[in-house]
Amino acid sequence: MATAEKAGNYSDLKAVFFNGTLKKSPQTSNTDGLINISRLIMEKQGVSTRVIRTVDHDIASGVYPDMREYGWATDEWPELYPAVQEADIMVVAGPIWLGDNSSQTKKLIERLYAHSGELNGKGQWAFYPKVGGCLITGNEDGIKHCSMNVLYSLQHIGFSIPPQADAGWIGPVGPGPSYLDEGSGGPESDFTNRNTTFMTWNLLHLARILKDAGGYPAYGNLPGEWSAGTRFDFENPEYR
């Protein structure tokens, strides 16, 4: 068996965790308990982390960068979005309700989508080369369904997804204890702890690779060039 290589230097990376719990602070969030496992691993490597509980903020619903321009009296998203811009890693975390992601998680995805048409310094879509992951908590089934929704959404708008980029915890089928409840077994679950740890390290590894490479090469993925007529070796078979 190959010996694990010593970890590299990740101290220049930044990570932001969005907690989609429906509980306002200071109420206990089970999702926060799982976030802390990943966050503490990152902080041991010197990564700067931030956790944002979206329900604590007056974030308007919609798919535009600033919904105050579309009839909403208030919208805190423009003040929160710089945390995404500055981050190398973003983890979307949240609970399962009725077998699906919470309304707060869905609102976050919609607000991220609002920026999907913007460009980065290379002229690529704005979220190149950020890395994304997903953490899910609940006490009934639905982890894979919720993770599929989040990870598909993130890659669609430009985030890079490493292997095994999701983890979660659910109790037995049917109503039961939540992750942090006494006797739930959640914090002691080897399966959840292993998957959360693997996810965290794969996020760190991919973020390190992309940062060291200066992101993705700016060829074949520039919307401005495509609009100007560049076809990056594409050939329309009708004209062959």
TrEMBL record:
GO MF entry, a single one: oxidoreductase activity
Family matches, as Pfam families: FMN_red
Domain spans labelled NADPH-dependent FMN reductase-like: 14-161
Gene3D superfamilies given in the database record: 3.40.50.360
InterPro entries reported in the protein's UniProt record: Flavoprotein-like_sf (IPR029039), FMN_Rdtase-like_dom (IPR005025)
Protein name, as recorded: Flavodoxin
High-level lineage: Bacteria, Bacillati, Actinomycetota, Actinomycetes, Micrococcales
